[in-house]
Amino acid sequence: MNSERDSETTFDEDSSQPNDEEVPYSDDETEDELDIQPAVEPEQNRINREVEATRETLRKDCNWQVKANDRAFHEQPQFMKTEYLCLKKSKYAGNAIKTYKYNPITFLPLNLFEQFKRAANFYFLVLLILQTIPQITTLSWYTTLIPLLLVLGITAIKDLVDDVARHRMDNEINNRNCDVIREERFINAKWKDIKVGDVIRLGKNAFVPADILLLSSSEPHSLCYVETAELDGETNLKFKMSLDVTDRYLQEERALAAFDGLVECEEPNNRLDKFTGTLIWKGRRYGLDADKILLRGCKIRNTDVCHGLVIFAGADTKIMRNSGKTRFKRTKIDSLMNYMVYTIFILLILVSAGLAIGHTYWEQQIGNSSWYLYDGKDYTPSYRGFLNFWGYIIVLNTMVPISLYVSVEVIRLGQSYFINWDLQMYYPPKDTPAKARTTTLNEQLGQIHYIFSDKTGTLTQNIMAFKKCCISGETYVQQVNSDFSWNMYADGKLTFHDQYLIEKIKQGKEPEIRQFFFLLALCHTVMVDNSDGELNYQAASPDEGALVTAARNFGFVFLSRTQNTITISEMGTVKTYDVLAILDFNSDRKRMSVITREPNGAIRLYCKGADTVIYERLHRNDPQKQTTERALDIFASETLRTLCLCYKDISNEEYEAWNKKFMAASVALRNRDEALDKVYEEIEQNLILLGATAIEDKLQDGVPETISKLSKADIKIWVLTGDKKETAENIGFSCELLTDETTIYYGENISALLQTRLENQKNRTGSNANSSHGDNENFFPPGGNRALIITGSWLNEILLEKKKKKKKLLKLKFPRTMEEKQKQMESKRRAELNKEQQQRNFVDLACECNSVICCRVTPKQKAMVVDLVKRYKKAITLAIGDGANDVNMIKTAHIGVGISGQEGMQAVMSSDYSFGQFRYLQRLLLVHGRWSYIRMCKFLRYFFYKNFAFTLVHFWYSFFNGYSAQTAYEDWFITLYNVLYSSLPVLLVGLLDQDVSDKLSIRFPSLYILGQRDLLFNYRKFFISLFHGVVTSLIIFFIPYGAYLQTMGEDGEAPSDYQSFAVTAASSLIIAVNFQMGLDTSYWTFVNAFSIFGSIALYFGITFDLHSSGIHVLFPSAFQFTGTAPNALRQPYIWLTIILSVAICLLPVVALRFLTMTIWPTESDKVRRQKGSSAPHSRTSFSMNRG
């Protein structure tokens, strides 16, 4: 009983509490610790596991082999794969790429197939086929064919234009030239002719044609500078470096032609930052990593010539592996719209079935006894009813809007262009305009409930400035402006304010101070570009660039580096140091180290990293621990970013023993990264602390104001960052997420609340009570300003996300009885339920807070938090970030926004929208998002209304024609109604309408709330539009019907024939629906007015043409309403009937709108009333108040 209870325990009572300072474990190890593992592993299991792991490694890690200058090697049978039954092909892809979808032969069938996979298009295709059956159709085939061809044609033209562009791009890329070794010399060849194993030569500013191993270059020590803008959008230069052995021996053409090295490496994959392989040449093995690989799409910069060996080509290259389909995001309105179309389908079937039954009854009662209605076919009434069912499906098909989806795409495309063209979201310092990278999510920008934001580079500028430091326990802070004129290398940009520190450096009496800045100049991966005669640093991160620049200004100037050396100017004296090893930085290590040999032969390790990882590795008796830790706390409270610096002297014997392990790990084929980390860990122990740096990263302009506006719009903002808790909390106060009135809760505070709630829920479930009772109780009393600050460690603890070591599946297992298996499965099921309930409780608690700050979180935890809110609150989420660590979060949220910042373009390339500063988010949401939502809702409501008003006239007419599926309008009017007569006004409203101006939208953020609550488009609004359409169709039919009874025209002729009635009803309908659009228009421009009156004029112009005798002579069977419009519309009585019909349709709407505005005004009505009629939206337009 106890064991079962233990398995349900929420928290590990024996474990210590989470450490707020620790960043949680690697994302790859985030697994649930729920499986029950055997306490002791049998020896045979261990042996089997190791053998299986070795085989798996050989299969996975060494399966890709590349032999230089030997194409026949890659055609061997073991490298062939089967395609298309028995046909075999080499697994090594050619270098030609293909991104297009169609060719001249496949375009038409494939494009039509793709389009008819859409339910609406397929439905109209079926209708078109039904219309070719004379027994069931009363409507001409062209009434469906023309709109369908228009929809298919627009989509096909768009697809064709896109694919032609892809063809041109593919041809341009595949036919680029480069030099390739052929017959022992370089010849010019096209990219598409390159193969795996070829040795190629590239010049300055050339693009890299494939993923290649850098062999040598014209630069000293075979450095090669590349620009990776096409890969990750970053324009700053990066450097690659060849192996020392290939640099020495593979410079000449003859040597390159004779090169016969064998590369064994990982299979092609999409990881841009990872590569594991080994070069086997001249009987030795050399480790290869990503720093020695040039990826396809890179551009050679500042390097005259470089040589490389093709490892991956064409579709196997990393850039092509990353060009797969992205996750398709759909809006809430999309889903609702689809359900409404399904609802219309059901209504169509029900109405058609009802009318078919009516026709069956009518045939039985009247049709069989009326000799003059006999058509020569002896069908039974039930069979005639069956045929009429399909006839009404055809006649009433316009209930299902064929042009709806195309119109929606046009509106979204236009709204996206408005975002792109908005100069108020343009960031001049970086020449960065706003960019809508998708056209499918615009209206969802008006429905956001939660924003998840990164901190560094998103809320802050990510432009680092060296502000303070602590050296040997003494903190150097702001006093007076410092003078750097004594330093010829000073860049003149550093504004450090402690002259006392500079004097100490000059005097040289405290070696620790010089050692501090020497470490900053030495321990980094920065590259120097002095092509213009000045020192320009190319840094991988702003932090690193700021630290190296600070050392430069204090007299320790990084001048140059090679593969094995680094040159520094120390207070004017230039020295070169041998670099024995670089222990790389990564997100798990949180530190980097350099091992150097001093000019006097001494070996020393220099290390810099986060305080949490450095303090774990310091010598136990380090005297600077306490004072530096106090300084770190002060720096963090001032929102400064901190790093600790330390060093260690290493004996020759210790280094030699360690270096053997290092070399072995660097060429390991299995788990190379883990092996290197283990070796790094051995040497990075017993470090001596030098001090700490403090870098300032200021808030971006307008961040507090933006957060305040968004909060007033009832949008909750969560900040997810990897920074320390103190730093994150102080940033929260700086950007006004937190105030002095805010009650702050921490992980340790809410842990007990959540555990108590979970235990109560278990008890209720166990006692067979209503388990949901009390689940919706609030954690906090109503009212008050609350915030939650939680670290990644507490997040894992609370959400029951435990670290678990990865275990291979054992071949031999302990025998277990069925009862034990069932017991284990039940225990796992209960644990899963507990975890789900705990996560739901956490989300409920967090959402009761006004703001949430998650600090010390990993990228995977960021995405997990977003997913939890999506899953349990069913709320629309937006994630915004600027770095690669935000990509997972951006892709998880409903809408992802990337900021073009200092950390490259990975976030932007994965986002749906992008711009240059966080402050533009308020305009994106409160203006463009809100307008897009209002426009789309108004468009959809009106679209459904006008289609029902048009289609249901047939329904009322059926009661007077024996339910015979006869149409109430002329066929050509049915054909052109949605295409020409009523399409333009609603499209322009969907593109241009504004209820209030952009300034008022930002001034009154509460206007945004209606989108969050789905107030403008839902099932209620849909049925109101349906009812409005029903009423309008009633009026359009019965007013002319009543007016035509027993009437006589001025010429003595009765105008009450079917054709005159059809023209009267159609004319009333066109005027009514277009004027209705005018009533729904809030933002009037000349274009709107022209579209409404132009559509009416177009209708009359086309109608008179189609009813002319000339066109009837040419096509007598297709145009049968000869002279109807001229004869009918010259009767004043007809015009009075049209005016009466339109007035009865519109006057109740006007009266209802007036009452609504007066008694129940909306927020926008109140805002417009405050603004007054004297303030137009723009110089060229005017505003019409409406409800």
Explain the overall architecture.
The strands form eight sheets. The protein has a nine-stranded mixed beta sheet with strand order 16-35-34-33-17-29-32-31-30, with helices on both faces. Strands 19-18-28-27-26-25-24-23-22 form a nine-stranded antiparallel beta sheet, sandwiched between helices. A six-stranded antiparallel beta sheet has the order 5-4-6-15-7-13. It has 1187 residues and is α+β, with helices and mostly antiparallel strands. Helix 20 packs parallel to helix 28 and helix 22 (747-766) packs across helix 24. Helices cover 45% and strands 16% of the residues. The longest helix has 39 residues, at 920-958. The chain contains 39 helices and 37 strands. Pfam families: Cation_ATPase, PhoLip_ATPase_C, PhoLip_ATPase_N.
Draw up the topology in text:
Layout: H1 2-7, H2 43-60, E1 64-67, E2 80-83, E3 87-90, H3 107-116, H4 119-130, H5 142-174, E4 177-182, E5 185-190, E6 199-203, E7 211-217, E8 223-227, H6 229-232, E9 238-241, H7 244-249, H8 253-258, E10 262-265, E11 277-281, E12 284-288, E13 293-294, E14 299-301, E15 305-312, H9 318-321, H10 332-365, H11 381-395, H12 404-421, E16 435-436, E17 450-453, E18 465-471, E19 474-476, H13 499-507, H14 511-522, E20 527-529, E21 536-538, H15 542-553, E22 556-561, E23 565-570, E24 573-583, E25 591-597, E26 603-609, H16 611-615, H17 625-637, E27 640-650, H18 652-666, H19 672-683, E28 688-696, H20 703-712, E29 716-720, H21 725-734, E30 743-746, H22 747-766, E31 786-791, H23 792-798, H24 818-847, E32 851-855, H25 859-873, E33 877-881, H26 887-892, E34 895-899, H27 906-909, E35 913-915, H28 920-958, H29 971-981, H30 984-992, H31 998-1003, H32 1009-1012, H33 1019-1044, H34 1058-1080, E36 1083-1084, H35 1086-1106, H36 1109-1114, H37 1124-1128, H38 1132-1159, H39 1163-1171, E37 1182-1183
Parallel strand pairs: 17-29, 17-33, 29-32, 30-31, 31-32, 33-34, 34-35
Antiparallel strand pairs: 1-10, 2-3, 4-5, 4-6, 6-15, 7-13, 7-15, 8-9, 8-14, 10-11, 11-12, 16-35, 18-19, 18-28, 20-21, 22-23, 23-24, 24-25, 25-26, 26-27, 27-28, 36-37
Helix pairs in contact: 3-5, 4-5, 5-29, 10-11, 10-28, 12-28, 12-30, 14-15, 17-21, 18-19, 20-28, 22-24, 24-25, 28-30, 28-33, 28-34, 29-35, 30-35, 33-34, 33-38, 34-35, 34-38
Keywords: ATP-binding, Cell membrane, Cell projection, Coiled coil, Endoplasmic reticulum, Golgi apparatus, Magnesium, Membrane, Metal-binding, Nucleotide-binding, Translocase, Transmembrane, Transmembrane helix
Domain P-type ATPase N-terminal: 75-145
Coiled coil: 818-848
